[in-house]
Amino acid sequence: QKEVEQNSGPLSVPEGAIASLNCTYSDRGSQSFFWYRQYSGKSPELIMFIYSNGDKEDGRFTAQLNKASQYVSLLIRDSQPSDSATYLCAVNAGNQFYFGTGTSLTVIP
Amino acid sequence: DGGITQSPKYLFRKEGQNVTLSCEQNLNHDAMYWYRQDPGQGLRLIYYSQIVNDFQKGDIAEGYSVSREKKESFPLTVTSAQKNPTAFYLCASSLSQTQYFGPGTRLLVL
Q1: How far apart (Å, rounded) are the C-alpha atoms in residues A56 and A34?
Q2: Which of A48, A68, B28, B93 is the most exposed place for a label (fewest CB within 10 A)?
Q3: What is the mean pLDDT of chain A?
Q4: Which residue of B has its CA nearest to A37?
Q5: Among A43, A98, A99, the residue to mutate for chain B (most B Cβ within 10 A)
Q6: CA distance B91 to B37
Q7: Which residues of A touch B43 (CB under 8 A)?
C-alpha cells in the first residue's frame, strides 16, 4: 500500500510570514513529487514539481525533497491571503499518482 | 487554447439511473485518469488509461465504467450499482510524469 501522509492542519500564518507544509511517503520507488493547490470547490492546480534531492525554487514557492528520509516539503514565502487553500502532496510511482489528504492553509491579513 | 474540459459542471442522478461524465483533452497526453473526491478526503483513483482502447481499474472501480476510443476522450459512466455516487469527480491527464486536472463535475443524487 503506497501511502502519502500530510498534516491536515488547519495551518494559520499571518500575512507576510513563511508557511511550511510537510509530506511523507512510503514507497521508496517514488520517482517524482508534486504540490497542488486546491481552492474550495475547485479542482487541484499544479504549483510545483520536483524530481531530485534538494531545493527547487519558483517565485515565492520552494519545494524541498529528501529521498533518504522520504520527505517532501513546500515553503511559501511572503504568504498572501490569496494563498489560503488546501495543498495536496502527490507522488508518482510507475503509472499511478498517489495523493495525501491535503493541508488546509489560512493566511491571516 | 489547450486544456482539459469536463462536462457538465453539475449533474443530478435519479435512483437507478446511469449517468455519463465527459472528459476531453487537447494536450496530446497519452494517459488519462478519473478520481473521486469526497469532502475532507483525498483523491481516490477510479480508472486510468495509458493508451487508446486500454484501461485499468483503480482503487474504487466498482459501480463505474469507462471507455477510451479516442486519445482525446475518456468518459466515465456512474452506474446504478454505485450506491453512494455523490462526490466531486476529477478527470486528469498526464505527460511524462506530470499530471494536470480538469475543472471537475459535481454529482448529486436526487
Answers
A1: 12
A2: A68
A3: 94
A4: B101
A5: A43
A6: 11
A7: 44, 88, 99
Q: Indicate the average pLDDT of chain B.
A: 94
**What is the b/e burial string over A51-86, where b = at least 16 CB atoms within 10 angstroms of the residue's CB?**
eeeeeeeeeebbbbbeeeebebbbbbeebeeebbbb
Judge whether A28 and A43 are in contact, CB under 8 Å: no
Q: For chain A, how far is it from start to end, CA to CA, in angstroms? A: 40
- Residue A100's closest chain B neighbor by CA? B42
* Residue with the three cell numbers 454505485: B82
Band (pLDDT 50/70/90 cuts) for residue A8 is: confident
CA torsion sign for B68, B24, A86, A59 is positive
- What the block records as the C-alpha cell of B58 is 483503480
Q: Which amino acid would we find at residue A7?
A: N
Q: Measured between CA atoms, how close is A66 to chain B, in angstroms? A: 19
Give CA–CA dist A2/A27, Å, rounded. 6
Are B42 and A102 a contacting pair at CB < 8 A? yes
3-state DSSP assignment of residue A82: helix
What's the length of chain B?
110
Distance CA A59, CA A44 (A): 19
CB contact under 8 Å between A44 and B101, yes or no, is: yes
Q: pLDDT of B57-103, one tens digit each?
A: 999 999 999 999 999 999 999 999 898 999 999 999 998 788 999 99
